[in-house]
Amino acid sequence: MQAVKISENIYWVGAIDWNLRNFHGYETEKGSTYNAYLILDEKITLIDTVKEPFASEMIARISSVIDPAKIDIVVCNHAEPDHSGALPALLKIAKNAKIYTAFGAGIKDLTAYYGELPYVGVKNGETLSLGKRTLTFVPTPMVHWPDNMVSFLTPENILFSNDAFGQHYASDERTDTECDLPEAFIQARKYYANIVQPYGMQTAKALSVCADLPIETICPSHGIVWTKHIPQILSLYNDWSKGTQDDTVAIVFDTMWHSTEAMAHAIETAFLNAGFKPRLYNLHYCNNSDIIADAMSCKYIAVGSPTLNNNMMPSVASFLTYFKGLNGNKKKFIAFGSYGWGGQSPDQVFEALSACKCEPLLPAIRLAYKPSEDQLKKITEDVQSAIQAEQENN
Ligand code: FEO
């Protein structure tokens, strides 16, 4: 296990988690990395650590360039255990290291996980001289935990951004000039949608701080390091944090005997006729985190479920729970579903979407048993009229 040079005397010493497939509900089909960075100066400094099972990988990479016992400072930009889990193993070796973390929330969170350690709380704009280099600490609370902060290193102008600008993307390449760049952008978007999206306002505030810094490199805590494509990732974050909407529509459903599926297609036709780009997601095949990434920019969302034992289907309930926690901007919604008797699901979906920062485009749409061609045509006409009325009002 070798350290990877990022700049003179600055190394990536993290770990690659090729097999991560689920990050508390976020399906991570490309695995992830936990990035830690080593700065060799008069004070030997480690920026963040890795998830606990990967401690030996990190320590081996550090050992490839320096004795880890010589580490003086560990900066904990964020206490979540994917970045702090290796702290106890490291401190058994680096016995004199002090841990710099956000004053208040950082110390509180790390103490909760690891007990009393030699913490130093840092405040906004506080600096720390490492010798030839200086670190400046900037809190970025709720992007995406209360303790989050970023650290800016001069004179190299490296922003250690922790979760911001990260991607769950395992690869052998460490930078945006070496990796599969389109994949890095896809994973950065999915990461934003599934982790950061609820905190758009706080992200916008953090971005305004970043705008004042002469950033030459962004070293996030997951995925690849941004070097050449910093303007693009900053611009994407700017759009995402503002909740910029486009002309796509997410139509999400499950189906028992294809009736709710037929309704989904009738709704699809209405949006196509109105000039939108509908995308259909059958929850039997599609996972919540991919849908959330696509739905982030939609102005409209339609969710449908058949009635199963007086309830919506469990797959739809799971999607709506996940969506409620993450939806970052107001959307107009349609709730729909088929039933045999009872028929509770369309109203349940309607209620659940109403609790998700969304507003109804029209009342819940319900059909019994197998929809006829005329019934499907009526759905298309009703939805199309509702879209047109809404467009005229805005
Ligand atoms: Fe990658 Fe919030 O931890």
Brief overview:
This protein is 35% helix and 25% strand. With 394 residues, it is an alpha/beta fold. It is elongated.
Task: Describe what you observe in this structure.
The protein has 12 helices and 24 strands. It has 394 residues and is of the alpha/beta class. The longest helix is centred in the C-terminal third of the chain and has 20 residues, at 373-392. It has helices at residues 55-63, 81-84, 87-93, 105-114, 181-196, 200-211, 230-242, 259-273, 288-295, 314-326, 345-354, 373-392, and strands at 4-7, 10-12, 15-17, 22-23, 26-27, 32-34, 37-39, 45-47, 73-76, 98-102, 119-122, 127-129, 134-139, 149-154, 158-162, 217-220, 248-253, 277-282, 300-304, 307-308, 311-312, 331-339, 358-360, 365-368. Helix content is 35%, strand content 25%. The strands form 6 sheets. It has a 7-stranded mixed sheet, with helices on one face. Strands 17, 18, 19, 22, 23 and 24 form a 6-stranded parallel sheet that branches. The model has no long low-confidence stretch (mean pLDDT 96). MU-OXO-diiron (FEO) binds at residues 78, 80, 82-83, 144-145, 163, 221-222. MU-OXO-diiron is lined by residues 78, 80, 82-83, 144-145, 163, 221-222.
Q: Helical proportion?
A: 25-40%
Q: Please state how the strands of the largest beta sheet are arranged side by side.
A: 1-2-7-8-9-10-11
Please outline the major beta sheet.
7 strands, mixed
Low-confidence runs: none
Q: How many strands?
A: 24
Q: What general outline do the C-alpha atoms trace?
A: elongated
Structural class: alpha/beta
Using only CA atoms, what is the Rg?
24 Å
Instruction: State the end-to-end distance.
Output: 57 Å
Say which molecules are bound, naming each kind only once: MU-OXO-diiron
Average pLDDT for all residues: 96
| SS summary, helix count | 12
Strand coverage percent: 15-25%
